[in-house]
Amino acid sequence: MAGPIGIGLAFVMGLALFDVARQSAIVVSRGRLANDTAPNPDQPWGITAQTLPIIGSPEQQILDALWTARQAAALKPGAHRAGLVASAVGEALEARPARPEWGEADLVLAYAASLGDSAADQRLARQALVASYGSAPLLHDAGLWRIGYGVKVWPMLGRSTQDAIMNEGVWMLGVDQSRWARVFDTFRASPAYVPFMLRWRTILSGAPENPLGLSEAQADQRQE
Asked: Can you say how many angstroms the Cα of residue 55 is from the centroid of all Cα atoms in its chain?
């Protein structure tokens, strides 16, 4: 049997190994996300390891889910991509219950599920998108991806979520002029363009928001 000294040494070595594993996980997470220096409309940004996630923690799971989803996004449709998507979705789903309202987890889940091919995946992505607005209405970095995905599925969203998407777009225009072109281009190529422009112009002018149900052309004429 091991004596007290042997047991103590084993305990200390165990702690040391755990700390090494934890620090390695942190380094890996930060390394994986090290290129998050500029907004990319095709991926959710702003999910970073600014705190030290404990290995196996929900935060670590969300980082891993995001990384796995990004790997899947770079692949052509096939079994390997589908497996990565399923893994990312599973990790995000497992991490979400850790907090009642967790915008980052909802957004990562939406992103991962949106890469799936099945109707169930797409439905889950929309549900997670809606949940993300409930827990985090405004996201500076990840908002570009969220708006872009939101307008893609615009007809399948409820009015409150559509309003949240437009509000985030208007807010983003107000806080970061460098994103104006991207925000306007995102809305312009979607059925959300007319209501978004009416809302934007309403805020600029302080007038009631399209009380007459005007078309885009009519709204342009009223602004002239």
From this structure: 22
